[in-house]
Amino acid sequence: MYLHAQKLIHEIADDEPDPAAANALQEGLGGQFGEMRTMMQYLFQSMNFRGKAAKPYKDLLQGIGTEEISHVELIGTTIARLTDGSPRYQGKSTDPIDSPGAGGATPLASALTEGNIHHYLVGAQGALPVDAAGNPWSGSYVYNSGNLVLDLLYNLMLESTGRLQKCRIYEMSANKALRSTVSYLIVRDQAHENGYAKALETLGVDWKKVLPIPKTNAEQFPEVKKMVDLGWQSKQYTFDLTGASEAAKIYRGASPSNDGTQLDATEQAPEGAPLTIADERPEEFAPGLDPELLALIQATADLEMAEPEMTYGPL
Amino acid sequence: MYLHAQKLIHEIADDEPDPAAANALQEGLGGQFGEMRTMMQYLFQSMNFRGKAAKPYKDLLQGIGTEEISHVELIGTTIARLTDGSPRYQGKSTDPIDSPGAGGATPLASALTEGNIHHYLVGAQGALPVDAAGNPWSGSYVYNSGNLVLDLLYNLMLESTGRLQKCRIYEMSANKALRSTVSYLIVRDQAHENGYAKALETLGVDWKKVLPIPKTNAEQFPEVKKMVDLGWQSKQYTFDLTGASEAAKIYRGASPSNDGTQLDATEQAPEGAPLTIADERPEEFAPGLDPELLALIQATADLEMAEPEMTYGPL
Amino acid sequence: MYLHAQKLIHEIADDEPDPAAANALQEGLGGQFGEMRTMMQYLFQSMNFRGKAAKPYKDLLQGIGTEEISHVELIGTTIARLTDGSPRYQGKSTDPIDSPGAGGATPLASALTEGNIHHYLVGAQGALPVDAAGNPWSGSYVYNSGNLVLDLLYNLMLESTGRLQKCRIYEMSANKALRSTVSYLIVRDQAHENGYAKALETLGVDWKKVLPIPKTNAEQFPEVKKMVDLGWQSKQYTFDLTGASEAAKIYRGASPSNDGTQLDATEQAPEGAPLTIADERPEEFAPGLDPELLALIQATADLEMAEPEMTYGPL
Amino acid sequence: MYLHAQKLIHEIADDEPDPAAANALQEGLGGQFGEMRTMMQYLFQSMNFRGKAAKPYKDLLQGIGTEEISHVELIGTTIARLTDGSPRYQGKSTDPIDSPGAGGATPLASALTEGNIHHYLVGAQGALPVDAAGNPWSGSYVYNSGNLVLDLLYNLMLESTGRLQKCRIYEMSANKALRSTVSYLIVRDQAHENGYAKALETLGVDWKKVLPIPKTNAEQFPEVKKMVDLGWQSKQYTFDLTGASEAAKIYRGASPSNDGTQLDATEQAPEGAPLTIADERPEEFAPGLDPELLALIQATADLEMAEPEMTYGPL
Amino acid sequence: MYLHAQKLIHEIADDEPDPAAANALQEGLGGQFGEMRTMMQYLFQSMNFRGKAAKPYKDLLQGIGTEEISHVELIGTTIARLTDGSPRYQGKSTDPIDSPGAGGATPLASALTEGNIHHYLVGAQGALPVDAAGNPWSGSYVYNSGNLVLDLLYNLMLESTGRLQKCRIYEMSANKALRSTVSYLIVRDQAHENGYAKALETLGVDWKKVLPIPKTNAEQFPEVKKMVDLGWQSKQYTFDLTGASEAAKIYRGASPSNDGTQLDATEQAPEGAPLTIADERPEEFAPGLDPELLALIQATADLEMAEPEMTYGPL
Amino acid sequence: MYLHAQKLIHEIADDEPDPAAANALQEGLGGQFGEMRTMMQYLFQSMNFRGKAAKPYKDLLQGIGTEEISHVELIGTTIARLTDGSPRYQGKSTDPIDSPGAGGATPLASALTEGNIHHYLVGAQGALPVDAAGNPWSGSYVYNSGNLVLDLLYNLMLESTGRLQKCRIYEMSANKALRSTVSYLIVRDQAHENGYAKALETLGVDWKKVLPIPKTNAEQFPEVKKMVDLGWQSKQYTFDLTGASEAAKIYRGASPSNDGTQLDATEQAPEGAPLTIADERPEEFAPGLDPELLALIQATADLEMAEPEMTYGPL
């Protein structure tokens, strides 16, 4: 059972809208090695897990898998911000229904030549479950052989490939919103690489000098360096509400990345950053409320409400 | 940000393994109108939501979307139990690596003729992200137009279609494990139907006699009737860890299903049922641990561990 | 612009429901060489046609393409009849909403083991736009190179492959409903083979003895023989409402199939057979009308209506 | 059974070729909510229809479905005109085979950077069965649950989404050929919205103020306003050649769009506009006739032909 | 540049036709972890290889990739033999065109219920480029990140997964034709596992006890044991016609599988087994030659022919 | 069984990197009518071939199919060269790991706007198994009906369509690397067209003036003319290492293209051109070797190696 906190797992820096940057980020969301895939892969591996003696391994998968849902939320929100307003429409009309294309204007003209036209035509300046070449996400991506060694090996390769692709995305754009999310995910992918590599170490493998994959250095990615200096590449939250996770039995000891840090999995969750709601975009008919419907919406929003009955936190 | 509780949202009744029942259930997991789709659709609609005045609508989407992740976990686990052991292999060997196919035996022979062969060949007697005809789940299923009325209308249709398909699955098999999960989801889909129908009522629509869709009666589905008598079709949890959800501003008042109940969304989460770990299946090489690897796994499991540092519950 | 006559292009013989036969027929509807494909391919070739001097070739494509829409209707209706009632449910209940699965019965149990489960789970005992292995129809099937010789060559191959597959389907089942439609389409595919082969003859090709493809003989397919004796393999209707078709400039003279007949394209349309409406299937919740909704439907059906204002036929 | 009239359902305004506009229009042809989809969805819903008492509903589906085939023809032809000549090749060569790329020239160079390269590489400057992101049309788009209320609800949502996307396309380009077709389809989609909304009204639903979806106003889309002033959004032709359609029993009375008009379905078909044949494009080898083949084509075109034997109109 | 020897890389044992066994084998041919995928993956990794200093690694990829083409040929031929004649048609008619379905018989009836119907309807009792669930092979399977460590890690996982799936297929059927090919491929997959594991050893990784994956033992798979006793799991041919391969610089020394053998890559190619041509199947119209066409074929076969001019062997 | 010679089948001219040209070429590699498709189609037709009397036809398929693997290698290598260095990164760093993005630079920025972003993000400036619109290659492309006449007819159409598309690609770019490969393939496709057309001639068809398809002339494509003057369009190698091919019994006599040449198939293989290995691209982390790993690689490359034991050539 899952619960949601109205927070983003990491904050997104402000910058200009950028449809091409948004499109590149789609690979990290809906691509074959993106967050939707890691999320689904680990959730399936957890559901189908075999071997009671191996509970710490299941808990590691479940914890990382739960984090990946928050990564889907983070990268999806980043894409939404990068597409929002990118056609340079100001969106400050006092009459939101009628003005956008008044007299036959073309407020969405830029969609023909920049980024993925579906961001403006199928979605309303928001994220889509597709990759950077426009291919929809596919269930055939999910790997779950049931063999523990193979699943761990695949996951190590998967996190490393995700990290490789995010390093390449970093090199494609200096947009700060893109960079803040991509840099965070580069660090978190390494944290997950470390988890799967460590799990294989408990089974005997000695990685020597090949990790991390890909080899990078701090100077190359300044935003990444700041987070590495905080040790985020060696920390894994349990994301577990029942206190039952045994992931810390694996996620401990010297990092397989040979950076001198110790792995740590003794905290439940990070603090997070505020979640906000985007403004309306009349040229997209989103949400498409005319004054009559808006009044009805407002009436609903103005209702009084009792305190909910809580089973879980916040503590 | 999401967290996980090591519980199933609803318990699964015990019954015999049944590969054909498992295959039918795949439609409810990876089908076009299954739980992976509702989950992804509502998470995307939440991420891309527009209109600050409409926060209760976003919170309704976010809350139902979070519940759908638990439904993925529930139906996936049900499929795993229905496939587990279905080839009638006893799995009690004292020498788990060598016995399954000793001397060239065919412990997986039933996979050639029953259910989906991929349950045994690609997975290790577990759930897959595909539908009942074997098609992988596709990102092209997700609908998120950005227009609030359209998104609500689609969601109402989506939940109703999901419920229709689950009623048909119910009529296909009397297996108790299948039935306990399918009946629960029939009731929950109606709870979601009610939520989206009510949201459209706040915008003026009067549904009169057309809801619920499909029309069913209590006598037809005895397992469903028990849950309807408890009012579960009119209850929506917030699944929100920050106490900030305003979904209850919509999910209140008389049910659009005309069954005389009042909608209620004042609780955070249900109690849930225990999550367990499946036994190993040597004939699938899952998890495929020989004595040497098993000893290493056990050493990890035996480690001492500190209490985790909790931010959220349990209270 | 297209119009519809409430008639089937050919009648369907009565026989028992047969889910496996229905599934085999799906190849002829939604398969790579089925009727949806021929229809779409010829409509695209007509829309994108180049060369004013070549109007008879365009008219040939347009006429055959229009006939293919009627073939989609014929084969789809045949599949619907073969699936209808196949789970052996009698459907004669006086209380259509409540009886089908009364007390937890399994009226759809046969769907787990016979034919395509989607016929009962996703559709309501009706045709689907998929092939016999369950793959959805794809736009990537459509071929339209724009080169006239290549398009004609492809079409000749396409009709021959369609006919080959229908001969194989004929050999798979003796169900009379399947056979009446399959035999008719074997003959019509040959009529289209003749059309494209003749068009290539006007450009100089001499086919000698290779046509028709595949080689069959009359004795092998008795139902086919009856229609061949009527000369239907050498006849092409214009299906044109404006009297402007010049297809008969190509579709004339000795048949390229070397059967001694003369091609003929001087009639507009065949007589056709009655179209009927299927009974409801309460176990599918189709159409799912309870007494209240049924009364509303009946009120609509009982309304008086003026004569429509006609521009086209019947003469 | 279907017939074809050699007419376009609406005329296409003249304007410059425009590959980007053509690509955007592909969403309206081969996209998930485009004309190929509405056409196929309604044809399947008609074929698989259940309930003799509900014939007016089937006739409504059949009539709109038949119109959608003409919409496929209209939008496909518009795309063909927008791609035709877009690489700025004049196409007036006296020696059509040899001149286009004489001496190694690159008459198709613009295909590398504008619109969809497949318009020039796979097709010969013509329409393709794909969406604006290049994904082929898929049979998985077709929805036909068999439940009448659900199918009507889906169709209402489908037409509204189609209309929403066409409003967005309108805002992307001021090309007159694109606009004349898109504006016409915006109006016709609303006519279909009205039909499905009205059908749900006969079952009791009261839409109050939510229709039409999306909310637009006349001033915003001048080309649309002209057709709305003619009342085309409230008119539905039967497209039925047998005079048997009962769609007018539903399509009558006050418009659910609250624009003060009365719905009307008492005419068979609109007048239509002339269909023409495109010029050859030697650089595409389309149709690729050298002088010898051209002479053979001309010989066929010069043949005399008898009057066809007509069963249906024109009256 | 590639050349072909008219030999199978390994012989196929004789046994009865078996459509279900043929279908299971399709996973090994066209599945996500089958031979078409390994072949394509290694050919792409070779073409796109970077780093002149790393030539032995490229040569290892090229050599294994070339072997995989022969594996496609072997497993495809095995499937063809297992489907051939499976409908129990004797195929010994003296009049091959007319007899199969004489008088409306159903010689292909078994296709409706056994294996994949496409083996009989789309193919003519032969192999298809699809997996065991009927999904067509996809280019999206191919992994080639360009990062050497990642590509090697993926390949190790890929070969191990292929071997895992083949062990499962072995356990599904005792058919000797299936077993001879599956057992051979289990051994060869291990030989490739050893190659990629060894390549990672040269980069420092120490696998200790985790290899091979999956863990099996000799007694379980008697046919495999015979080939392991011959050391085939530790031998890699160069399949190189220019004598330039440096794969043996990697493929040498103690096996990473810890079985006490030494790796060896000093031979060019194995001896192979005879390739034969299948008999015709008149009920499939394959090859579909009537007496006239057969006479023409024979005339071609009877022609005299000069010795070809050879550049490469046999020596 | 297949072997590989470390040679390209034809040399690639040097020119500037060009991402748009690379993307267009992808259609010739991974497109529906590209080299991966011809290769797979002919390999499947060979494996599934029926009819011992028709061995020359099988050998023709096998020989052309083998050549197509070399074409995959040629066009893939061409794409790799055209993408390599296209982001204008000089790649001459002395510290390959750290310099590419030093200080947060964007060496891959051009990937956002030129060609297919996957060339830089998923691949490392190399070829991908996709078409020019980014769709992955699909097994559903492969046609193998088993009917000899149909398979030959399809193959003739396939080669002609491939040649048509390559003529269009030629007209899209004057890049010399693109042109040298495209021109070679235009000539080889015609050689294959001639082979299949001739095979149909042996069955009686007389093509008169319709071949070749498309009609081109020498002056239009200067690079093609040079190879046509050498007669390469009328020559087919056996690519057979056992001297057993009988393809020359078909591939002989006057060319069906009416160009006055005689077909010839008496040589085993062309000479070929050198294969080289690309430089590393640090900004892609390809191959991603830091100094420690590089030293290990070098140690492997420096090993001594025995002469391999050869079974086949070179002679």
Automatic annotation (TrEMBL), chains A, B, C, D, E, F:
Cofactor dependence is on:
Mn(2+); Ca(2+)
> Where does the UniProt annotation place the signal sequence?
none
Q: Which domain of life is it from?
A: Bacteria
Q: Which InterPro entries match?
A: Ferritin-like, Ferritin-like_SF, Mn_catalase, Mn_catalase_dom
Q: Which residues form a coiled coil?
A: none
Record's cofactor remark = Binds 2 manganese ions per subunit. Binds 1 Ca(2+) ion per subunit.
Region Disordered, annotated ranges? 85-104
Q: Where does Ca(2+) bind?
A: D59
Q: Which family does it belong to?
A: Belongs to the manganese catalase family.
Keyword terms of this UniProt record: Calcium, Manganese, Metal-binding
Q: What is this protein called?
A: Mn-containing catalase
What organism does the UniProt record list as the source? Pseudokineococcus lusitanus
Pfam families (alphabetical): Mn_catalase (PF05067)
The protein's matches in Gene3D superfamilies, at most eight in alphabetical order, are given as: 1.20.1260.10
- Provide the binding site for Mn(2+): E35, E68, H71, E159, H192
Drop me one GO molecular function for this one.
Answer: metal ion binding
